[in-house]
Every structure is written in structure tokens, then in C-alpha cells.
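Please, structure for the following, as C-alpha cells.
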Amino acid sequence: MKGIALLILNLLYFLSSSFARTENPERPNVLLILTDDQGYYDVAACGAEDMLTPNMDLLFREGMKFNYFYANSPVCSPTRASLITGLYPDKAGVPGVIRTHASNSWGYLNPEAKTIADKFKEGGYETAIIGKWHLGLEKPNIPTQRGFDFFKGYLGDMMDDYWTHRRHDINYMRENETEIDPEGHATDLFSQWAVDYINSKKNGSRPFFLYLAYNAPHFPVQPPEDWLKKVQDRDPNLSEKRARLVAFIEHLDYGIGQVISALKENGLYDHTLIVFTSDNGGLLRDEANNGPLRDGKQSVYEGGLRVPTSIVWKKHIAAGSVTDYKAATMDLYPTLLEAADIDVTHNIDGKSLMSVLHGEEMDDSERLLYFTRREGGARYGGLTIQAVILDEWKLLQNSPFKSQELYNLNEDPYETINLIESEPEQFRLLNSLMMKQLQEGGKIPWQ
């Protein structure tokens, strides 16, 4: 009888503590906005002088701007895997891009990884993803089986057309597990679905975690024609290609504005933590603007990894604040869960940024950041490219068939002077750290 009584007492304690967490008014709703291939400078607030992004600018003005926020990989799937697991991409089972055809797919989301949606659900949150998933096309690696209560969006990697929403003539649009075939531009659809979701939560009894993952501005660059005309009329000197990308991003900004307005109209804005970031740097052949940073998407130079990032949380993060702390996508996992008062008791690679967000100094001089990408084709041959950063030093190998390079980012932020011959001690140190990361990642199956 004592055993049964103790079991009942423990159950009541669990239920009461869970209820208390759910009802805690200090726990914010969380809106995580992820754009696709948006360049480091491709926000007006971050340096773009040829585009108007008032809604993205608002998030930088009302929150904290990260000058050194790194995507975990220079391509889509690996960064998204890090975001939802808090792990380096290869430890999440996704060192490369997950695609339709197995012969050209380079990842499989680790079945043992606990996703951020799993954790939010444990903490009493409602969880939803709207937009691009790109971490699996079939069970068990679909959103509704990896912690999300609600999914409305796109399972695949990219759309061959933003209006027809197909990839290889396959329809990857889903509502939960049901195939749907909506009409309209994908950016407009995702924005409206997010607005609908927020409207449904006006009088909700539980806080929500909404992961809003856009396809834009990933190629093909397809802004609505009226948006393109507006940009060309305003600045006829822009090249056709740049004008299209500017219009594409301004159209995306408009959609984000609708989502922000929905939060405000429902009285939720001041009680919502908002993250804005991108999954990797901008694609140079589409004339993305990565500023003076070297290279872009697909590259482990700074232009492929550094992304525009802001975090807003009214009354908790000083408006207009800026940090030089070197953070990465995987850090969002423990940061958002800490904000929600949800403990992370398992091992992850990400580190909470909460102290930084509160304006405290955090030392990143001894923190190792590691980046990787596995890819096929003649350019990569199924091998990896990778980089590590420790303090001001960065070691990288941007092709599996070329030599490693070493840069001092404090003295040479645009990676112009390779110091691998003149700094042998730094090379040996960073090379040993890189090898250790590769060995750790190699323990996790990715096929």
C-alpha cells in the first residue's frame, strides 16, 4: 500500500508541477523565423542599401543583433538539423542535403535525437511548423513524428516553382500527413498559414512554439511581378538578377510583417520571443549580398556561414542591442528552452545564449565552433568540406581535393591571407580539434 501511495503522490506532484509550468505567465510564446539562403547583408538593417525591409528591420531594432551568428553548415538540411537537435549536423545524422533520390541524398535525421519540438511538448507547449521541413520525406522523419503537433508546409528540399510547389514533379505539400495542393505563391501561403495559426491561439491556455521556415529567397528567384516592377521602377539601375532578388526578399519581408501584425492584433507580441535568422549565406550567382565577406552559400568561408540574426523578447532583451559573441544555429535549441523554463538534461553541442541576451558578457575565446558539409557530384565526390573556429583562428578545407587554409579573423576578417605555412602551431592545434569532431560525427549513421 505504501508503494501505491507513494506512486500516487509522485504522479500528483508531476501533474501539479506540469500545470504550474503551463500556466506560468512569464513563459513566452516562441516564434522562430528561418529564411532560406538570405545573405548576411540582405536586410536593410544589416547593410543592404538597395532594398526596403521594414519588418525585418523592426526585429533588429526591437531586439539584439548578432554580428557573428553562424549557420551550422553552408547548406540547408544540416543547419536545420542542428536547429532542431542542438547538435552539430553530422552528430544529428545530417552532414549533407536530404534529397528526393537516395543516390544524391546525404543525411538521415538521427532517430535518437530529441528534437526541440519534443522538448517544448514535454514542457507543456503546443508545437507547430509551417513551411519548409527538409529533414525527411517519409515516416518516421516527418514533423508530426518528430515532436510537432501541427505541420502545414513542404517536406522537400526546394521548389522548382514557387507557384506550383513541385520538386521533380512530386507534390511535397502537406497538412500534417495529408497531401494538399494549395494555390498561390509559397511565401504568401506560409505567411497566411502562420497568421491563421497565431489567430487560433489568441485565447489559448498554453504557450506555443511556432517554427516558421520559409523557402524564400532560395532559388529559383520568383517574386510576384508587381513586386518586381515596384523595385525596378524605384531603382532602374539594378541588374535584372539583383532586382529580382531584392523584390523576392521585400515580398518575404511583407509576409513576415503580416505575421508580426497578427501577434500584435491578438495581444501576443509582447509575450512572444521572436528569432529571425537564415540557414546559410546568400548564393552569389543570384547576386546575393554577403557584404565584404568571402564567398557565399555552399562555402565554409565566412560568406557561406555568417547569417543575419536578431532575437526579440520584450522586457527581457534591450531594444537595439548588439553583440559580438560568436553564436551558431545549434545554440537556439538550449536558449529557447531556457526561456521557456524547460530543462535540457541530455548532451547537446549548443550553448544557451541567455546571458548574452540579458546583456552580460560571455567569453567565446575558448569555444570551438565546427562546420561541415557532405556532398556528392564531381565537385565533392561524396566527401566533406569543413571548418573550425577557435578564438580568432579559423582552419578550413573548402574542397575535399584542395589543401587546408588557416586565417586570423581578427586581423584578416575577409580571409585573404592564408597563414598555414607561417603558423604551424596554430595549424596543428586546430587540425587536431577538427579531426576529433570528424571522428565524433562519424559515429552517427547518415544513410
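The CA atoms of residues 83 and 330 lie 5 Å apart. The chain is about 30% helix and 15% strand.
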